[in-house]
Amino acid sequence: MSDAALPATRRVAFPPNWPARIGWVVLIAYVFYASTILDITWDRFRSGLDHGAKFIGRMFPPDFSADKLSLLYVGMTESLQIAIIATVVGVLLSLPLGLAAARNLAPRPVAWSARALIALFRSLHPVIVAILFVKSVGFGALAGILALIVASLGFLSKLVAESVEEMSMKPVEAVRATGSPFLSVVIMGVLPQVFARFIGFSAYQLDSNLRNSALVGIVGGGGIGATLLTAFQRFDYDFVLSIVLAIIAIVMVGEVISGWMRRMFQ
Amino acid sequence: MVTATPAPDARKRERSLIINKLRKEYRAGQPVLRDVSLEIESRGLIAIIGPSGTGKSTLIRCINRLVEPTSGEILFRGRDIVQLTSPELRTMRRHIGMIFQEYNLVERLSVIENVLCGRLGYVPVWRAWLRKFPAADIERAFTLLDAVGLADFANQRADQLSGGQRQRVGIARALMQEPDLVLADEPTSSLDPKTSVEIMELIASRAAERNIPAIVNMHNVDLARRFADRIVGMSKGAIVFDGPPQALKDSHLLEIYGGEGWLE
Amino acid sequence: MTIADVSAGRPRQWQRFSLPQRIMRSAFYLLVVMAVLWSLRTIEIIPEFLYDAPQQTVDLFVRMWPIDWSWYPKVVHPALMETLHTATLGTILAVIIASLVSLMVARNITRSIVLNTIGRFILVATRSVHAMVWALFFVALFGPGALAGMLAIAVHSIGFTGKFLAEAIEEAKPGPIEALAAAGASPMAILVKGYWPQVKPAFLAIAAFRWDINVRESAVLGLVGGGGLGMALDSALNNLYWDQVGLVLVVIFAVVIVAEIATAWIRSRII
User: Fold this and answer.
1) Mutate to test the interface with C, among B139, B144, B145 (most CBs of C within 10 A)
2) Looking at the structure, do residues C213 and C190 belong to the same domain, yes or no?
3) Ranges in chain B, pLDDT < 70
4) DSSP-assigned beta bridge partners for residue B48
5) Is there a domain that residue C5 lies in?
6) Per residue in C225-270, pLDDT tens?
7) Is residue C169 included in any domain, yes or no?
8) Torsion angle of alpha carbons B31, B37, B43, B49, nearest 10°?
């Protein structure tokens, strides 16, 4: 192939990527536009930072005095209990719900209804669900528990359904061919394939519920959330810090426990 | 170990399989099985040969209704399989053991658990959940593992086994059902030549030992000739040859497989 | 199972788990049961509230219907826009900061263990504190409104985004990097032309995923003063205007569904 045969155009080594460039420009323009709508100005930011310095000053050292500690203890144990119950119940219920939502296992109408239910549970923020439950069953831990159960179901069941839809149907076919009843097919053919991942998801959900249990109290669902809100409203920032530290501590302990759980069942 | 057995004639009838005008259309107007009729007597290994896509696998899978027939009759143990309701089908499937091309084991379960799957049609669900199978079943599972040469592998996870070993587990699982009929859908297609012979040897001998028929799909004609008591050749959804291996001539093979110049 | 067993004609045994395994599993289940019992004992469930529950729920839905659509244009629509902008700006800010932190955490970019640990700590701390708690903090700092909400979203998202980004960077193939380094490319060039193309699909997927979650979060931050739909919800709740509450809930639900569909579409386009 001789050079003479090539057309006399200049070949560009790195042609400009116009879609990407336009994308960046749009992005930057958007940032400015949205900031204006949200009334985010540099002045506000700077005065906030000034506040912040004073703020941080008031937060240290964290308040661990006796009366605050007992408040902390009561609130944290309640949050812990909420998280435990919600996780256990959520894990137990999510398995059948997730199996029912698997399109390769359940008949179509069942699968679609289950999926719709799961989608509903997932779309609503746990805080909103907590507000609704507070109205139905009153203030206190029960509302928080129910709200977190709903959140757990939304998350876990979807993952169970996806795992079941991704698994191999071959062993299931073989177990069916032995004349086994449906539940036994599930137990011996489906569950072994999804169980390992399910344990991982459940461990994550325990972690998530521990974090969220601190939240539902803010809207009346029991636990440390209410204590935290009050502390903020009373400007007890040093107590706020101790509460936040306690929450972080519990979350880290939770991560250790879920690590054990995962290893034991693998 | 003699248990009360029904009279020989009745046993023979029980284990006969009669297929009448079986038709299967995955898409309307394009039948994969064209009104196939076949009578399988009570024992022996029947090899079904034919090119890919000719309906061999569909035929086998219609027998235990893993594929739903479009029309026709399949008579076995005094019932028409095509007409059974779901619970009746489950009961019927207990008596039909199936071996699959890709072994279809539950990879994360141990060998012995896979074999015990063969009893799931007979034990209540809670036993499956707690893995508390009756002692007699466990003993039988171990005996079967001895018979297929995997006694030392009982507690190994199925995915740690080689292809040939996995197929042996599949055979043990099928036999665990104490079936009256064994179906095998290309059991050796994923195996090397030496292992294929071993597996066919195993299927043939175990079926003969139990006096039950075994219907085996295969695409290796030499294996068919070597192990089958009867060969059924299919082409384009219909049976074009049915006879003992000695009667299978090259002309028949040409008719079954079509094409030229592949025969020596 | 022993030879003696077999020759004596006793049936062979099999158990799914060995003895130590069974002990551990039983211990675990026992622990779980004890934890649940302990939790149930001290939770106060007032029976009257429980009996009342079905009736209260029905009452709730009756009060929410018919939905007060008239409230939408003046109050809810701007609030919706505010929520969307909060979520988007918050995600953008989080992605920028998280990218920097993830560079600090990724072991194939930063060798210093000290920097790695600091980076990891930042990620864990921001993740453990929920967006709403950050919102409380920022509201105290900047006053109620979307600024506080946006910052809360941004800071909370740094944790997750940074973790996933760091993993994506660590999974980048060393081949192209080595080639660029051998050709004498500057560190900046290696980052832009060596790592970025490999990380880009994961980067966009994570950003889209996080945006979806942030829309959900932004909608409720207003309950503590973070602006957007949450504040509309809060005021409606305080006034017990349940039909307006119903409106906000429907709008939140709709926007979450739309965000999910949009995210799924974007992810299918880039992956």
Assistant:
1) B139
2) yes
3) 1-15, 260-261, 263-264
4) B217, B232
5) no
6) 888 888 888 888 888 888 888 888 888 888 888 888 888 888 777 6
7) yes
8) -40
Contact B135 C13 (CB under 8 A): yes
**Contact check, Cβ <8 Å, A176/B66:** yes
Q: With contact defined as beta carbons under 8 Å apart, do A200 and A258 qualify?
A: no
> Does residue C90 sit in the same domain as residue C193?
yes
DSSP designation for A219: G
Domain final position from C22, C41, C61:
C61
User: What CATH number does the domain containing B86 carry?
Assistant: 3.40.50.300
Residues C46 and C164 in one domain: no
DSSP lists the bridge partners of residue B242 as: B232
CB-based contact, C252 to chain A, within 8 Å: yes
CA atoms within 13 A on the CB side of A42: 1
Torsion of CA C204, C207, C212, C213, to 10 degrees: 150
Tell whether C88 and C164 lie within a shared domain.
yes
Cα–Cα distance, A136 to C56 (Å, whole number) = 5
Q: Which domain holds residue B24?
A: 10-95+213-257
Packed helices C113-128 and C146-170: angle between N→C axes, nearest 10 degrees: 140
- Within 8 A of B135 by CB-CB distance, chain C residues are 11, 13
Domain membership of residue B90 (yes or no) is yes
Cβ within 8 Å, pair B138-C16:
no
* Whether B52 contacts B217, CB under 8 Å: no
Q: Which residue in the set A124, A135, A212 is minimally distant from C253, CB to CB?
A: A124
Give me the residue spans of the domains in chain A.
Answer: 65-265
Q: Residue C4: inside a domain, yes or no?
A: no
Residue B184, domain member (yes or no): no
Q: What is the CATH number of the domain that holds C114?
A: 1.10.3720.10
Tell me the one-letter amino acid at A64.
F
The angle, 0 to 180 degrees and rounded to 10, between the axes of the packed helices C77-105 and C242-270 is 40
Contact residues for A114 (Cβ-Cβ < 8 A; gap 6+): A97, A100, A101, A106, A157, A161
The total number of structural domains in chain B stands at 1
Q: Find, in chain C, the residue whose alpha carbon is nearest to that of B131.
A: C16
Same domain, C42 and C85: no
Please give the model's pTM, rounded to 2 decimal places: 0.81
Residue from C211, C220, C255 to probe the interface with A (highest A Cβ count within 10 Å): C220
Which pLDDT belongs to residue B244? 92
Domain of residue C52, residue span? 13-61
Ranges of residues in chain A whose predicted pLDDT is under 70: 1-9, 266
B213-217/B181-184 β-pairing? parallel
User: Which chain B residues are closer than 8 Å to A193 by Cβ?
Assistant: 106-108
Q: Is A173 in contact with B104 (Cβ distance < 8 A)?
A: yes
Written as six digits, the tokens of B101 are 């091309």
For the segment(s) A65-265, the CATH number from 1.20.120.330, 3.90.180.10, 3.30.70.580, 1.10.3720.10 is 1.10.3720.10
How many residues does this entry show for chain B?
A: 264
In a domain, C147, yes or no: yes
B224 in helix, strand or coil? helix
Q: Do A219 and A127 meet the contact criterion of CB atoms below 8 Å apart?
A: yes
ipTM: 0.87
Chain B CB within 8 Å of residue C13 CB: yes
In a domain, B208, yes or no: no
Bridge partner list, B60: none
Compare all CA atoms of chain C with the CA of B113 and give the residue at the minimum distance: C16
- For chain C, how many structural domains are there in total? 2
| Alpha helices in chain B, H assignment, sequence order | 8-14, 56-63, 86-94, 111-116, 125-130, 135-147, 163-176, 193-210, 221-227, 250-257
Chains that touch C (3 or more CB pairs under 8 A): A, B
Cα C56 from Cα A137, distance rounded (Å): 8
Report how far residue C193's alpha carbon sits from residue C76's, in angstroms, rounded to the nearest whole number. 45
How far apart are the C-alpha atoms of C57 and C263, rounded to whole Å? 33
Would you say residue B53 lies in a domain? yes
How far apart CA C101 and CA C166 sit, in angstroms, is 8
Q: What is the pLDDT of residue C5?
A: 43
